[in-house]
Amino acid sequence: MKTQKFWLFLVGAVLLVSTVAGMLVFRGRTGAATAFIYRDGECIRTIALDDVNKPFSFTVEWEDGCNVIEVERGRIRVAEADCPDQVCVRQGWISNSVVPIACLPHRLVIWLESADSGVDGVAG
Question: Does the pTM of the predicted model rise above 0.90?
Fold first, then answer.
C-alpha cells in the first residue's frame, strides 16, 4: 500500500513540475523581440525582429572565420558557419529569450530580448 502511494506521489510531482516548466518556457514566447548580436562581449548589431518585412541574411566575418545570419519576421538563426562543431547552425531558429545562440569558436552570441518586459521568459 505504501509503495502505491509513493508512486502516485512521484507521478503527481513529476506532472506538476513539468507543467510549471512548460508554462515558464511558453511564457517566454512573446512578440516584439529585439535581437542583439555580440562579438567578444561587444554588441555589433541590433535588429527589431517585428519590424522585418522581408527576410534577409548577412555575413559577419572575422580573422578566425565567418557566420551567415538569417533573419525573418520574429525569428533569427545562424544559417552557415565555418567553425568545426556547427552547434550554432544546428540550434536553428530562435524566436524567444529562453536560449541564446552561441558560436564559441567565433565568440559570437545572439540574444533576444522581449520588448514588453525586461525579464526573460525563464525568470518570469
Answer: no
What does the alpha-carbon distance between residue 83 and residue 68 come to, in Å, rounded to a whole number?
11
> What are the grid coordinates assigned to 98, written together?
529562453
- Tell me, letter by letter, the H, E, C secondary structure of 7-56: HHHHHHHHHHHHHHHHHHHHHCCCCCEEEEEEECCEEEEEEEHHHCCCCE
Q: Is the pLDDT of residue 17 over 80?
A: no
Taking Cα atoms as reference points, which of 103, 104, 101, 123 lies closest to residue 112? 101
76, with CB counted inside 10 A (0-12, 13-18, 19+), is buried
- Residue 13 pLDDT level (bands cut at 50, 70, 90): low
HSE at residue 122, side-chain half, CA atoms within 13 A, is 7
**What pLDDT digit, counting tens, does each position of 29-48 carry?**
445 689 999 999 899 999 99
pLDDT, residue 27, reads: 53
Q: Which DSSP letter does residue 94 get?
A: B
